Amino acid sequence: MKKIGVIIPTYNRKDLLLKLLSQIKDQETGLSSIEVIPIIVVDGSTDGTIEALEAAGGVEIVKGDGSLWYTRSMNEGFARAQKLGLNAVLTLNDDIILAENYLSEIESIIDSNDKLDVIGSITLTMDERPKIFFSGIKKFIKWRQKEVKYLPKFKEVVPSELTGEYPSFLLPGRGMLISVEALKALDGFDNVFPQYHSDGDFCLRAIKKGFNVKVSYNLKIYSYIGLTAQGSSFKKSSFKAFLKGFVNPYSRIYIPQVARFVFRHGVKVLWPFSFCWTILGYFKAYFFNKKVA
Fold first, then answer.
1. What 3-state class would DSSP assign to 194?
2. What is the pTM of this model?
3. What does the pLDDT look like over 193-207, one tens digit per residue?
4. How far apart, in whole angstroms, are the C-alpha atoms of residue 236 and residue 290?
5. DSSP state, 47?
6. What domains lie within the chain, and their CATH numbers?
7. Rounded to an integer, what distance in angstroms lies between the CA atom of residue 191 and that of residue 179?
């Protein structure tokens, strides 16, 4: 039996986290070839998360002091998984709901893949008629830093009709199944990106190392997209808050992090042009992209 570490970083979202863990517990009862071990990285929560986890039991707890943020939280979880001798890790967020058959689909993927590298999940909204939030990136145009999606964001879909696996240049950390071999070869996520971009950077580095990176439409996650951080192109915010994002080290659009990502994964001779194009793209998204509350 293979052991899979489910790594979930969390900060003051006790109720959502416990709801997700309850789902995991319910779904793992039907598994026969994999054992699921939740690894919860609690980064300085003050809402009683640690006490609730200790009372419930059945999980590995990694404690932080509030300074880990996303990437270091994930790496702490990866380190615990490797210390436990696990075969793979599944990265999740604390603000999601799993499809009813999610873990059984994870089991099927593991059972049917002799060489498991990196496989991600699609993300749907919680609407009565679900919409696509992430469907995979079928093409990544380096010089423009443009992501060509399989399906448009917020396109209404019928979840049961979405099946199959497809190559994807980028994946979010929300529902990423990673082999221990890939983790070791890439030394986890890069701490130079403390909050954003480390998951996408990991995928692009994995591809460069010869690992297969795919998205599985059989793996479905539903997201509370309203809880996604400000600075996302689909979130409503004031123009002042948008501009502040460029100088906030923990923002999705923090200029030094964007510059580093573009230099690392773009066409280096075109870096000044690509960087400027990317920043202009953020302004375009702010003014013209569809917004949610």
1. coil
2. 0.94
3. 999 999 999 999 999
4. 9
5. S
6. 2-227 (3.90.550.10), 239-288 (no CATH)
7. 19
